[in-house]
């Protein structure tokens, strides 16, 4: 009997948990499992700002796939086109070669990319915080601005290099500005020629509240903590124009700055747009059991899918969070095992456990199961949650060791020179221009 070919697209929370669940639920002779991902690790995205700030090493938040899956064949590349008629995917390997991969069951978990808007200069000047490479680049860039400002005698240049702008008042943006400001404040002590008061961080969001999902009280508390550290938090404001040495805001203010970090939301992977299927705000419409209407044998989950949230009313869909993605991956594995054995699949249902936001040091805000905490108790909850969610003992041990080492010794403010002479645009870092139309994918598949 020929084994069923299962192809999982994406090595994030949903894809890896699905592969692990399939390995547990299926015998080797039942299915051939393949996972397509350009990275050799599963990125624990919630701790990425701490990597940029030097609190954690990259290995702490990027457990290798070889530790997580054992029978799954890992294809190092990215799916750039899908031909559902012939059940074939076009894959661009990390070597640049293009190959075709046939499947019987296709599980789409390509995740999301940084959402970009039609703002003059944004694509050229903005840097993201979505990948390990982006975090490494942002860290190098921020430390480089301190080095260059300290070496310059031009007052205007110093002002431009020492003002940093982060756009996006959600989870990612708030933690990014909190962690990186602690980095620059600590680093300033090593630069006797720099006035620490010249280092300014700005957090912008077009929304009227900071992290509204936390509730009014905790959102205000997080905002208060940032402002007490010296961050200029501007709500109801965004970027109107981005240039190399200045950023114009929608309220007509002009900030002299050479650093724009863009975390203003996410969008589903562009791969979803290559399918002839219905979408909601760019996310693929799926049933509660992850099946894609009109596409037999195709399933979608995670950030790229609009999975119905059955714990709420009014047609709500699950938010694109790590919590939902990992649980959906496990549920998808159980459903696929059931489908292959002729058993009924079940709808996904999970009540959100809450949100934790680590602001660095002793500061955090958390809302687990509807209860509100701030300060040190919230920090204990936040870090406890992250340790619980990290998938391997090695990653947990590295993370604890890094937290303790950073608390005792601080940072060395090391620059690696990563992409120092090449602008790391969102398009380059997240490969958003790599995808094929369905017609082009069909041309490349036999």
TrEMBL record:
Name the source's superkingdom: Bacteria
Q: Which InterPro entries match?
A: FAD/NAD-bd_sf, FAD/NAD-binding_dom, NDH-2
Keyword terms of this UniProt record: FAD, Flavoprotein, NAD, Oxidoreductase
FAD/NAD(P)-binding domain: which residues?
5-329
Q: Which family does it belong to?
A: Belongs to the NADH dehydrogenase family.
Q: What is this protein called?
A: NAD(P)/FAD-dependent oxidoreductase
Organism expressing this protein natively: Streptomyces spirodelae
């Amino acid at each position: 009997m020929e084994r069923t070919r299962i192809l999982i697209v994406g090595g994030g929370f949903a894809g890896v948990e699905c592969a692990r669940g399939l390995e547990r639920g299926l015998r080797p002779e039942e299915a051939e499992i393949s996972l397509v991902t350009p990275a050799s690790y599963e990125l624990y995205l919630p701790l990425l700002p701490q990597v940029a700030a030097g609190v954690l090493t990259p290995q702490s938040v990027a457990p290798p796939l070889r530790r997580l899956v054992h029978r799954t064949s890992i294809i190092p590349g990215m799916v750039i086109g899908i031909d559902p008629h012939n059940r074939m995917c076009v894959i661009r390997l990390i070597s640049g070669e293009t190959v075709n991969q046939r499947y019987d069951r296709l599980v789409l978990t390509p995740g999301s990319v940084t959402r970009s808007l039609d703002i003059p200069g944004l694509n050229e000047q903005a840097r993201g915080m979505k990948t390990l490479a982006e975090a490494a680049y942002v860290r190098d860039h921020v430390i480089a601005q301190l080095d260059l400002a300290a070496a310059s005698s031009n007052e205007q240049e110093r002002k431009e290099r020492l003002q940093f702008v982060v756009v996006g008042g959600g989870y990612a943006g708030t933690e990014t500005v909190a962690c990186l400001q602690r980095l620059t404040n600590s680093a300033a002590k090593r630069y006797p020629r720099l006035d620490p008061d010249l280092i300014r961080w700005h957090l912008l969001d077009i929304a009227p509240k900071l992290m509204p999902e936390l509730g009014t009280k905790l959102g205000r508390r997080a905002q208060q903590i940032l402002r007490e550290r010296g961050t200029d938090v501007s709500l109801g404001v965004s970027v109107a124009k981005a240039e190399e040495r200045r950023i114009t805001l929608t309220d007509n203010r002009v900030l002299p700055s050479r650093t724009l970090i863009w975390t203003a939301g996410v969008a589903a992977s562009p791969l979803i747009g290559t399918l002839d299927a219905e979408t909601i705000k760019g996310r693929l419409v799926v049933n509660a059991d992850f099946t894609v209407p009109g596409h037999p044998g195709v399933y979608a989950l995670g950030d790229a899918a609009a999975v119905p949230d059955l714990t709420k009313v009014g047609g709500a869909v699950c938010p694109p969070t790590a919590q939902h993605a990992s649980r959906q991956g496990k549920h998808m594995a159980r459903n696929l095992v059931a489908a292959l054995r002729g058993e009924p699949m079940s709808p996904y249902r999970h009540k959100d456990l809450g949100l934790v936001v680590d602001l660095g040091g002793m500061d955090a805000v958390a809302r687990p199961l509807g209860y509100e905490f701030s300060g040190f108790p919230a920090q204990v909850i936040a870090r406890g949650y992250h340790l619980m969610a990290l998938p391997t003992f090695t990653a947990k041990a590295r993370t604890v060791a890094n937290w303790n080492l950073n608390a005792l010794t601080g940072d060395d403010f090391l620059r690696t020179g990563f992409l120092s002479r090449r602008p790391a645009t969102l398009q380059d870092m997240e490969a958003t221009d790599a995808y094929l139309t369905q017609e082009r994918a069909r041309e490349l598949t036999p």
